């Protein structure tokens, strides 16, 4: 590699991430959007520096021993080819022009910084929804060169005060050692970045789903205090509660992300529906038993039939007696 002349391997990239906020977490798409200033520094010993220039000692365009140049000058300078693992979208921030800058330091280090909004994929499991928690990694490294050629280091800054309210609690962490390298068929590559812990806020689900459904189940048990003879009132109460729980279940299913099996809130609502359905079936059994207990031993038809049979039998017996006497 010609760009590694006069530099012993491995080559080093130094990343700095100034994270403004996590702007969005999409459960159904399993993606996360991050607004940040993305910075990378690298050493190019081939640069020829005029150490006696007055710009190094002045602080007009930045700190001393640094000079700002136009980002368009990168076409004349070697720069690394980078890859963000799991990248879905890379958006450059613009006002009047692209928010980016290049600084050349006196020690021949080049620093490039860019305002971006990055969307990355994040593998999420929703079997415990809405009691779920997820871990997402932001990893960046060299696109071409393996870890034998390129190593990297990184640091991040995250100010939680600027974070907008989302449905998760957000915590930033350093990348664990096992995630500082990426193994691909073409080789093993060094990776740098940070790790994000997402823990879902549960108060909304507690107030909107768990508490009302629990109250509906308890209300169905109160119906046991109503006399079984009051059929319209008791039946209307149980059927209404059953239909309301079915409606809550359908509403939750529409909002819930896809899971590999029945998630936690679905299981809870299914149990609630089964309890109300059980109360409804219990009342049906009570009505059936009451109907059997109140059923007369003889029906009207059997009574009339017996009466007419007895009336026909008596004349026949009387006629037979008179005949024998004669």
Question: Outline of this structure?
Answer:
31% of the residues lie in helices and 32% in strands. It has helices at residues 203-222, 231-255, 264-294, 300-325; strands at residues 11-26, 31-43, 66-69, 82-84, 87-92, 100-105, 109-121, 133-142, 150-158, 168-174, 181-184, 187-190, 192-200.
Q: How would you sum up this structure, described in words?
A:
With 326 residues, the chain is of the alpha+beta class. It folds into 2 domains: 11-200, Neurotransmitter-gated ion-channel ligand-binding domain (Acetylcholine Binding Protein, Chain: A, Distorted Sandwich), CATH 2.70.170.10; 203-294, Neurotransmitter-gated ion-channel transmembrane domain (Methane Monooxygenase Hydroxylase, Chain G, domain 1, Up-down Bundle). It is built from 4 helices and 13 strands. The strands form 3 sheets. Strands 1, 2, 3, 5, 6, 7 and 9 form a 7-stranded mixed beta sheet that branches. It has a 4-stranded antiparallel beta sheet with strand order 4-8-13-10, with no helix packed on it. Helix 1 (203-222) runs antiparallel to helix 2 (231-255), helix 1 (203-222) packs parallel to helix 3 and helix 2 packs antiparallel against helix 3 (264-294). The longest helix is centred in the C-terminal third of the chain and has 31 residues, at 264-294. It is rod-shaped, with a radius of gyration of 40 Å. The model is unreliable at 319-326 (pLDDT under 50).
């Amino acid at each position: 590699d010609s760009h590694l002349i006069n530099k012993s391997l491995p080559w080093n990239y130094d990343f700095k991430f100034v994270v403004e906020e996590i702007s969005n977490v999409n459960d159904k798409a399993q993606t996360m959007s991050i607004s940040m200033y993305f910075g990378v520094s690298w050493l190019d010993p081939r640069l020829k520096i005029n150490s006696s220039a007055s710009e190094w000692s002045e602080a007009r365009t930045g700190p001393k021993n640094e000079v700002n140049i136009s980002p368009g000058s990168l076409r004349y300078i070697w720069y690394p080819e980078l890859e963000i693992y799991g990248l879905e979208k890379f958006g450059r921030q613009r006002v009047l022009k692209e928010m980016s800058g290049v600084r050349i330091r006196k020690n021949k280090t080049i620093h490039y910084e860019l305002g971006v909004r990055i969307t990355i994929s994040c593998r999420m499991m929703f079997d415990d929804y809405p009691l779920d928690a997820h871990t997402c990694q932001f990893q960046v490294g060299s696109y071409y060169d393996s870890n034998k050629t390129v190593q990297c280091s990184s640091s991040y800054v995250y100010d939680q005060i600027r974070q907008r309210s989302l449905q998760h609690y957000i915590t930033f962490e350093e990348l664990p050692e096992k995630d500082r390298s990426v193994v691909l068929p073409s080789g093993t590559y060094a990776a740098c970045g940070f790790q994000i812990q997402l823990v879902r806020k549960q108060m909304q689900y507690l107030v909107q789903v768990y508490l009302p459904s629990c109250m509906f189940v308890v209300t169905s048990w109160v119906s046991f205090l109503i006399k079984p003879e009051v059929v319209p009132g008791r039946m209307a109460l149980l059927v209404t509660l059953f239909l309301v729980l079915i409606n809550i279940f359908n509403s939750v299913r529409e909002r819930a992300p896809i899971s590999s099996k029945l998630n936690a809130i679905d299981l809870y609502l299914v149990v609630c529906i089964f309890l109300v359905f059980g109360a409804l079936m219990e009342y049906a059994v009570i009505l059936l038993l009451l109907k059997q207990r109140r059923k007369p031993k003889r029906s009207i038809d059997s009574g009339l039939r017996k009466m007419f049979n007895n009336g026909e039998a008596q004349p026949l017996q009387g006629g037979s007696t008179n005949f024998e006497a004669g």
